[in-house]
Amino acid sequence: MLHMTHNYLLGLIALVVSFCFTFYVPIGYFWFKARQQRNQNK
């Protein structure tokens, strides 16, 4: 039982981490590109 709960916990953590990566990576990328363009416009 403990082993299955541990595997479930690891799967849940992996799911949350992958969700955070797919959600935050494009936001950070677009923010970085917008900041670069703003710096070029100055």
Automatic annotation (TrEMBL):
It comes from the Bacteria. Keywords: Membrane, Transmembrane, Transmembrane helix. The chain crosses the membrane at residues 12-32. This is Preprotein translocase subunit YajC. The lineage of its organism: Bacteria, Pseudomonadati, Pseudomonadota, Gammaproteobacteria, Moraxellales.
